[in-house]
Amino acid sequence: MSLLKFAPHVAISDEAQADQFINGLNPDVFTLVNTGRPDTFAYALNRAKGAEAGLLRQRRSQFVPPDARASQEEFQIPPPLDLTLEAAVVERKISLQD
What we know:
Blueprint: H1 14-23, H2 27-34, H3 41-62, H4 66-74, H5 83-97
Helix pairs in contact: 1-3, 2-3
């Protein structure tokens, strides 16, 4: 016997359950999940898990431990030279020699 027989007001549609779930999500996850507008709770849950995992990977890749940050500050790679300016100077010298 189903318990819903005694409390039918508790039963909500799968779509309403999905809406409640989506509206309670973290704003970053909400944006990613809500773009596809899942119509079932299971689909919304799977999308939320995927979005959360992706955000976690993204945040981990941006994190640099303090020890690594200190070593990066000591050995910085210089910015690339602006070769367009250097090439223009060389070209100008060649044209003056002719």
